[in-house]
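Milestone 3.1: sequence recovery, worked example.
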């Protein structure tokens, strides 16, 4: 592996015009494809196999044109103090608004508050329900704008008007977070390299990689039903790993220059050694992202595969375009330790005998490994304690900031009609096999009404054939509460008895039931996903490190950091600790996607640091150093780079904490704190402490396994001899060509 990548690095350095032309052509091709592709809508959202989805599919068959899973909006009106919604002037305003709401091409129906009994008992609050033909993810911006405009006209007439429902649900616009992350990344890179040019290379290649990846996704969006939301994860992860991978190779290149090697040789060795670590680190990220298909949520699967493709592009760019750009840069990229004239007056590298910060820290850890290990494990264990009270769920309008119209509409509906009115359940009864379907519908409604936590049950709405009915159930509790979840399960349990007694099948659906089913699907998939990702990566790391204990330590350390990060998320977003600092206006259940999302994303990023840092140690050990000295050597060359990479990663993710969307805020905080725990406590403290305690046993591998495993030579042993590094005369000629 190292020898092969070494030759690629030298070839790219020498044939830099050709390499640069290829990547520019790919970027142009992807850009043209994206520009000429039809505008991407939002991908269809479905959860195959869940009861809520089965109910939606049944409704599509029995109620054609109903758009059962279409978006809904509730336009909530509140009369001025001392007035009622039934007053003539207020009623006229509402009637006009209802007519305006019905004009959209995607509108399926609009329910009038006065004919649909949607006025509160005291007459102060009323609402109009709008049903759309497409889901909230597919709704056009023009339809959302028309909805907002109709509400604004009613406000101008003197009413308090707010809009709730999933019709206003849209992925928050990104850009500020990435810009903040890129800005901080630029500062960190300049400090790390002491050169504007060297700092600019990782940023440039990362942006090119993300540009190719996101443009390709846009170009294929219509053909593959990817949608405009699919590129979000690809952009976030592609940008992060693209900077990191280029940072690793440029850093190794400067280290090779500092050892006195010629620039082409330094580029080849940088790609051969650090590039090997990049390849395997990239593979772990790809495994984690592609593994999201285990969850069996199509949209999540597509997001994972798209992001994995962007990571693969980042790896290829790091291996080829970075050495090509280093060839263009020439002597402007200084050896490690030297500063550019602009930043450091062109001063020479520090004296070789003076240890850097990484060396001093590693020497401290190997002298006191037990104390460092205990402190790190106890600290992360304490941070993980809140996980014991973790509650999972999907956010609704009640978790929105009070400044949003969705949250104010939610509060008005709770005030006028009760908390459960914000999350009605849709019970679908299939009585096609029943001899008396109408009687079955009536009796089922009565049985559901007798359940605990039920406020109201509407009369059954039948289809034309009279064999299928929709019954709306209003819970007493809010949609995200445990009581409402228990009610959904109670109705479904009741459905098993109904199927046996009345030859009718009962299904519960609606947005609340769908959220519950999605949460359950994610919970059920977490352990299989964790086993798949960690298992495959464990096998991959055995090949990389030729050790059993080092990959085991890496996996256990990752689990500890993820648990600690989840504990921090629970403390902030569920318990309310530091909620003011984080601007968390509403505490509640943690988003059910967080555990599996953090496992996938953080595992891939954590293994980046593990591979880069420990391969340096492995390289030193293979080349004859004692185990403890190898740990120090690994930190001498890798600690500064890993620290810079982690700071960049934290900056990218922290940029999302300022979002007004609770989901985005939670994801940004969770990933940022997870990277902090994993990089600075697990990789920088626990890993060297464990390796110091294990000594030579850390690199133990059974002889039979050593014979079976392929020798990928990540540590660059094949580059130690000139003949192995440079190849035969024919091979050298191939490189020249």
């Amino acid at each position: 592996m190292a020898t092969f990548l070494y030759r690629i690095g030298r070839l790219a350095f020498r044939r830099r015009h050709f390499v640069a032309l290829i990547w520019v052509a790919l970027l142009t091709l992807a850009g043209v494809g994206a520009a000429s592709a039809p505008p991407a809508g939002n991908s269809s959202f479905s959860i195959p196999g869940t009861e809520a989805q089965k109910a939606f599919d049944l409704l599509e068959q029995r109620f054609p044109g109903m758009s059962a899973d279409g978006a809904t909006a509730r336009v909530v009106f509140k009369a001025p103090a001392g007035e009622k919604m039934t007053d003539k002037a207020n009623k006229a305003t509402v009637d006009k608004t209802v007519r305006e709401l019905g004009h959209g091409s995607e509108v399926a129906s609009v329910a009038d508050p006065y004919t649909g009994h949607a006025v509160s008992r005291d007459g102060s609050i009323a609402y109009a329900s709008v049903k759309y033909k497409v889901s909230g993810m597919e709704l056009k911006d023009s339809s959302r704008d028309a909805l907002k405009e109709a509400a604004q006209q009613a406000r101008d007439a003197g009413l308090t008007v707010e809009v709730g429902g999933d019709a206003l649900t849209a992925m928050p616009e990104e850009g500020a977070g990435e810009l903040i992350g890129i800005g901080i990344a630029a500062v960190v890179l300049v400090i790390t390299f002491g050169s504007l040019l060297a700092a600019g290379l990782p940023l440039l290649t990362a942006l090119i990689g993300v540009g190719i990846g996101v443009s390709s996704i846009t170009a294929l969006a219509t053909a593959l039903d990817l949608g405009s939301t699919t590129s979000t994860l690809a952009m976030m992860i592609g940008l992060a790993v693209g900077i990191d991978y280029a940072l690793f190779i440029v850093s190794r290149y400067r280290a090779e220059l500092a050892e006195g090697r010629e620039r082409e040789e330094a580029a080849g060795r940088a790609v051969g050694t650090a590039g090997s670590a990049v390849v395997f680190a990239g593979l772990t990220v790809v495994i984690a992202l592609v593994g999201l298909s285990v969850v069996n949520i199509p949209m999540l699967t597509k997001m994972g595969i798209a992001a994995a493709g962007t990571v693969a592009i980042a790896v290829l760019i790091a291996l080829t375009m970075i050495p090509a750009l280093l060839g263009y840069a020439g002597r402007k990229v200084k050896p490690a330790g030297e500063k550019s004239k602009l930043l450091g007056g062109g001063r020479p590298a520090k004296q070789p005998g003076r240890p850097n910060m990484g060396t001093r820290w590693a020497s401290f850890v190997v002298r006191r490994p037990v104390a460092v290990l205990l402190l790190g494990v106890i600290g992360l264990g304490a941070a993980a304690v809140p996980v014991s009270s973790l509650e999972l769920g999907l956010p609704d309008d009640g978790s929105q900031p009070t400044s949003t119209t969705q949250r104010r509409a939610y509060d008005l509906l709770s005030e006028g009609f009760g908390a459960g009115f914000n999350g009605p359940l849709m019970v679908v009864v299939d009585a096609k096999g029943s001899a008396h379907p109408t009687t079955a519908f009536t009796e089922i409604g009565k049985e559901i009404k007798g359940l605990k936590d039920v406020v109201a049950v509407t009369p059954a709405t039948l289809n034309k054939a009279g064999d299928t009915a929709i019954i709306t159930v209003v819970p007493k509790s809010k949609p995200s509460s445990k009581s409402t979840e228990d009610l959904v399960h109670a109705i479904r349990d009741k459905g098993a008895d109904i199927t046996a007694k009345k030859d009718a099948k009962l299904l519960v659906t609606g947005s609340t039931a769908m959220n519950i089913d999605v949460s359950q699907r994610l919970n059920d998939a977490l352990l299989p996903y964790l086993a798949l990702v960690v298992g495959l990566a464990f096998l991959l790391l055995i090949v990389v490190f030729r050790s059993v204990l080092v990959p085991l330590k890496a996996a256990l350390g990752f689990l500890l950091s993820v648990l600690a990060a989840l504990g921090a998320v629970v403390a902030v977003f569920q318990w309310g600790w530091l909620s003011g600092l984080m601007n968390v206006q509403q505490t509640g259940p943690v988003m059910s996607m967080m555990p599996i999302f953090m496992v996938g994303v953080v595992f891939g990023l954590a293994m980046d640091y593990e591979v880069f840092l420990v391969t340096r140690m492995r390289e030193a050990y293979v080349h004859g150093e004692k185990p403890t000295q190898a740990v120090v050597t690994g930190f001498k060359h890798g600690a500064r780079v890993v620290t810079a990479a982690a700071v960049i990663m934290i900056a990218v993710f922290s940029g999302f904490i300022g979002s007004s969307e609770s989901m985005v805020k939670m994801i940004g905080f969770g990933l940022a704190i997870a990277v902090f725990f994993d990089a600075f406590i697990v990789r920088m403290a626990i890993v060297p402490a464990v390796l110091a305690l294990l000594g030579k046993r850390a690199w133990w591998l059974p002889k039979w396994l050593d014979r079976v495993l392929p020798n990928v030579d990540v540590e660059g042993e094949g580059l130690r001899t000139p003949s192995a590094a440079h190849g035969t005369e024919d091979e050298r000629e191939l490189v020249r060509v």
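The two ends are 21 Å apart (CA to CA). Residues 171-175, 727-737 have pLDDT under 50 and may be disordered.
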